[in-house]
Structures are given as structure tokens and as C-alpha cells.
Amino acid sequence: MTNEALQQTILSWFPDPEFLQPQFTEEGSQYLIVNVEAEQLHELMQLLKSNPETKFDYLFNLTGVDYGKELGVVYHLESTVHRHILVVKVQADDRENPIFDTVQDLWATANYHEREVYDFFGIKFRNHPNLKRLFLTEDWEGFPLRKDYVDETNMVVK
Amino acid sequence: MNSISNMIDWFVSTGVLNMAMIALIYLTVFAVLGLFLVLLERKVAAWFQLRIGPNRVGYLGLFQTIADALKLVSKELTGTVKADKFLYNLAPYFVIVTSLMALAVFPFTRDLQAFDINIGVFFLVAISSIGVIGILLGGWSSNNKFALIGAMRSGVQTISYELSVGISLLTMVILTGSLQLSEIIEVQKSGWLIVQGHIPAIIAFMIYMIAGTAETNRAPFDMVEAESELGAGYHTEYSGMKFAYFFLAEFINMFIIAALATTVFFGGWLSPFGITDSLPWMGLFWFLAKTFVLVFLMMWFRWTFPRLRVDQLLTLEWKYLLPINLVNLVLMAVIVWLNLTIQI
Amino acid sequence: MGTATLEPTSIKKGFKSEEYFINMGPQHPATHGVLRLLLTIDGEIIKKVDPDLGYIHRSIEKMCESNSYQQIVHLTDRLDYLSSHINNEAVCLCVENALELEVPERVKVIRTILGELTRIASHTLWWGVMGMDVGAFSSYFYGFRDREMINDIFEETCGARLTMNYNIPGGLMQDIHPNFVKRVKEFIPHFRSKLPEYDRLLTGNIIFQKRTKGVGVLSKEDAINFGASGPVARASGYSCDVRKYHPYSALDKINFTEALDTTGDSFARYKVRIAEMWESLAIIEQLIDNIPEGDHKVATNAVIKLPKGEFYQKVETARGEFGVYIISTGTKNPYRVKFRSPGLSNLSLLNHIAVGGKIGDLVATMATIDIVVPDIDR
Fold it and tell me: In this predicted complex, what is the ipTM?
């Protein structure tokens, strides 16, 4: 499916203009990007996976990003049937307690990747069955991949 | 003075001194033999694996394992804190003593036999099953889970495969009518037993070699150690000389299995077609030559085959080897009864 | 990485008295590095596998944020060190795409040849270790014999045998050695004659087949669901070769068949890797005679600044799909770099396929998943 067709399909799932709508952009990226609000994330993801037209059954990348003010998660999705790619982005303003719905019930691979994001960014995932640190020790303080993380002994900042 | 000479007289007259002397010689010879078997294994492994193998210590690396043994002797003996100290220390002796004891009954040539008892084969089978107690003790008393798994595997494995070793030997005993090893060899003057017993003897030999390899816990039946699964298995917590005992016992056991096969299937020290009958000392050569061919065969197994899984190991024994063996036993009895053996 | 508690509370829940824990690793021959598997075992039967990661975590993604794009390339060697060339290539391609830089054909062809040689080298090592994991020691040395020839080619080409650092954004660091073509051409018939030897030693062995057939079965749906890639996924019938679907470098002009199997067990994964070695040979053969003349690089600025935006590049390493995701704000350093490692996704399905098997099965399954721990930990 082309990017335009994808955009139309996804928009048709959210017809009510009263509600928040996913925002599309292709700027500065080779893939189509969907910005979605945290409340809509799980619903959109479920539709993306289950709808036979989109059928995004392969989550090939899940990245946590610290945008400075907001924390976000980027999902790279691919369909093994249609071979189209979509990037879903979600952001939270709350740096203290950022929380999104987990997608590990849709893609089992998200289990480890969400743990990794939790480990490094402190982003929590609602309903995740085993949300604990993946790489660092349980008693590690702070979230190292955040931009405001300071570790004077181990980090050399140029 | 008188009492001392009396005592010496008593030792000499009862043969205790002789026994002690022989025991000492045997111990020395077979400890060194064990070391050189290790070297042989390493050389064979190297040959199979496109390597050179040990070649630095001494001429062609001949003293490599001597150096290794010296290293092991001088090493600190470490162990776990919560080990059952008494059993932990006892275990290696069980293993090494039983394997050295078994060597006493082998006739290396007509006159070179320490202990010619009339139940030789039975003695060997009995003694070889004591060794596993040492392994079980070692694995259990180490207080290490990997060692425990290894020891338990060893238990099931040795108990299972002992049946096959025993029955395949029993098949051959039907042919000889004697358990005495020297007599078994006498019988073979009219043809090695593997020829006399033809088909059932060959089957018995194959089963014996499979089960014998399993008895010695060597690959492809090295479930007990299984580096890639258990680290080092039952001897995980042993170091220095205690480990060396386990290690040496494995190689001496391999020699015993091969030597027994030589005695029971391939005519022991008898030369092929009697070509060196006029030279009795050549018997030692023939015995060792045949034994080392079989030792080489076992090394060949080890460096070629992957390891079985523990349930496959038991399936092989209880579903295949044991029934075949029992049928083979009956077949041999029928052959002996109908006088279908091949006599040269 | 768990703290030093012996019995983590999360596992204690629903724990039966017949079961016990065993720590496989971080120093264990079968975990191939510093990976710790916390096993719950009932006798010999695996009840749960809980991987504990992070023993070799170096935070390469964080390091990338304060390094230039040329420097990042060198860090990727240390991810999956057996596919170092392909990892380098991924970053270079990502940067080149972002800069809209067209590299010479010569560079593309050489990159592809070296990438396939890397794949063969990685698979021969895997084959040797696979044999060792199931108890056949000799295979290790046979695998290394052939890998040695490839490593010699690498050494002559760029001076390094493992972490190659041969790619730079814009091309190659130097031109290939004059002997390169000759030696690769020597290698191809040599390896063609040796691959059947691999089959004789392991593939056809009845014990080996018994150990791997029906062990660690992964269905196609699960493979996709767990994000599996590379030979692990292809053995389950999931066609996912990045070289086919998103061809990069010179791969779009190459004819090759993707190695596929449908059974999804350890033996299928084994066969797929063997088939991949044949395919890689075929790819090299198509390219080695036609290395175009030309420059080995195009000039880039000394300080590379990527335009504002985000860039993703996926490549097929020996282990599966490796992805580089760069978010740039237009400065000389990337704002965020994420490496999508094939190992982490492939490892995550271990618990799913190993439960119910014996300890020996777990080892065989781990060997066919072919994990490289630095790739998982990053």
C-alpha cells in the first residue's frame, strides 16, 4: 500500500473530528510517520495489526527517545504480507512518570524492547507483565539514555 | 632381631610381601600408562582435528602429561565450604582404587598375570560397578547443582549399561564355559572367540563396545561431564590431585574395557595364526597391540560423534541394546548347543 | 542484571517444590559469552528460562550521541563482532542515504563481497560451535580451518581480522589489495569442496539429527510475533531476508535464492545456515569477476553534518536483521542512535521454544539461535 493509501485507511478509523486524530508527516524521513496521542496508542496499534489491509504484524524496532522536553517512543512497523512500513510515534510531557500502554500483547517482541526503554528512559508501560530493568542492575539510579542524565565518574562529555 | 626376621619369614611365606611388591609395580606401571593414554588421546584428538597436539615437553611432547601430572600434584586442593567433607574426599579414591583393582586379573601374557581367579569376568563386572559409587558420592557431596545433575546422570547411565556389558560378556562365556580369564584365552587357541562365535559374537562385540564406552562415561555418552551442558559435571568442584584421580580413572577404565574386549573377543595375548608362538614374550606385544587398537576405536568415537541426550541414552539401552542382547544370548546358546561354532 | 539475590522474587511465585534453579552462566560454555540464564528445572526438564542480560553492556548508543558519524562506524564493530563488516556498512549506508551521497559502483560491489565473506566466516564459526555444543568437538577445528582463509583475506584487505573498520561514510577506507580477487577466487573452490565435508561430519550423523530434529520448534506466526529474523525466522518458513526485500549495496543486481525451511526446529535452522553458506558463495561468484574500476570512495566533508530528520537503514547480518536508526538535529553528532540488534529479538523467543525440553535440548536450541552476547547487550 502506498503512503497516501495508508494515510487514508488509518484516518478512516478515526472519523470523528471531535476526537484527537493521528497526525501524519513524511518530513525528514523515508517512511510515513504517524504521531499519535498516548490514549489512542493501543487502539491504533491493534487496528494496524489486525486490519487485513494494513496487517502490520512485524514490529522491527522500538526506540525510546528523549526529545529534551518530552519523552517518546518510536515504533517501526512492517507488514510481512504487504511489505509496507509505518512509523508510529508517541510522546509524553511528563518526565517524572511517563506512561504508555504496552504493545507486548500485540507483538511479543515488544516485551524485551519495552523493558529496554524502561531501563534507559524510565518510560513505563501499562499492563506490561514483567516491567523491570533489562540490562542495568535493579538498584541503578537514574535513566542513562536521558539527555539530562549525569554520571560524573563514568561519562566523558565532550 | 629374631622377631623381625620371624616377621619377614612370615611375610615371605604367606606371600604378603610378594603381593605388596606386585601391587607397587602395578600401581606405578599403570599410573604411567594412564598418563600416556592421556597423551595418546591428545595426539589422536589433534590428528582428528587438523592440529599437531602437544609437542614441546620432551621429545615429541612425550613428557607433556608427566608435566601436567606434576602440575596437578602441586596444585592447591580447593573445595566448596558446604561440601560433605568426608564423602567429598573419599569419592576420588573409590574411583581410582576400583579401576586399578580391576587390572589385577588381566593376563598380559601366559605368565604375566597378578591374580588368576576362577571368576575373573565376574570380578571385573563387579568391580567396575563400584566406580560409579565414587562418582555419585563426588557429585552429591560437592554441594553443587551441576555436579549433582552429572552424578545422577552417571547413576542411571552406568546402571543401565552395566546390563549390556554383563550380558554381552555372558554371551561369550557360554562359548568358553569358564569365567577364568586365563582359561578363556586357552579356549581361543582354536580360534579367537569372535571367529568361533561368528554372528552372535560379532553382535556381542558391537554391543560390548557401545556399552563399554558408556560405562567409561566417554563421548558420545559423556552425559556425566557434558561440558557444554554442565560445565564439568560431577567433578566440577574438584581440583588438583583429586581431580586427577577422576581423570586418570577414566583413562584406565578405557584401557580396562579395551583389554577385556581383547581377552574375551580377540584372543588376548595369542598371536594371529600362532605366528609368534615360539616367542612367549611376544604375547605382551600382541595383547597391547590389540588393546590399543580398541582404545583408538574408542577415541575415534569420542572425537567424531556428538553427544546423546539423556533420554536417548536410556532409550538406546533399554529399547534396543538390551532386547538385542537377550536374543543374542539365546542365539549363542543355540549355536553352542548345535555345535555350529567355527573351530580352526 | 539482577542483584546478587539467589532466588529472585518474581520467579518464586508459583514455584513448585520439585523444581530448582540453576544458573547457566555468566561463565558457562554454552552461553557463548557473558549471558546468564536463570533456569527453573524439574529434574532434567526445563520449566522456565529467564535470560539475565547486561553483563557486557557498554551503552554504545549513548556513546554515539557524543561522537561524530565517522566515529560511530567503529563502535558498531563491537556489537555483533562476527558481522562487523555488515554492521559498519549499515551505518555508512544510513549516513550516505541521509546525505544523498551516491557511492561508486566499485564500493558497492566490494562491500557486498566482503559482507558475504563475513557471513560465511560467521556461519563457519557457528557451525563449529554448534558441533561443540552438541558434543562433537572436531567440527570446531574444521570450521576454523575455513574461517581462517577468510580472515586472512580480511587481514590483507584492511589489516584487521575481526573488527574490520573498512567502511567509511562515502566508501571504503582504502582500495582493495591487489591479491584480493585472486585469494577470493582461491577460497571459493576450496570452500565448495569443504562444505560437503561439513555434511558428512555433522548433518548426516544420526545422533546429531536426533538431537536437533523436533527440538525447539518455532512456528511461523511466533517467529514474526517475536520479531525473529535471519536464519532463525527463515527456518520457520518466514521469508524475511533483508537482502531480498530491501536490497542494499550491489545486492539488487544479484540472483540468489533465499534459504527457507518450514519445520522451524533446530535442524531446520542448521540446514538454513548451511544453505546460506552455499548462497553466499554464489553471490560472491557473481560479483568477484566484475568489480568495476573506479574510485574507492567519494569525498565527504571532514565534519559530516546530517540534515535534520530521522534515518533508518536495515541490513542482513549473519544473525538477522540489523537496523540503524539515527535521529539528527543537523549537528555533527547524532541526537539519538538506536541499533536494532537481531540477537535481542531472537533471544526473547528462547523461553518460548525451550520450555519442556531437556537441558541438552536447551543447549542445542541456543546453539542454533546463534546469539552473540555483545550484540544483545550493546
Answer: 0.87
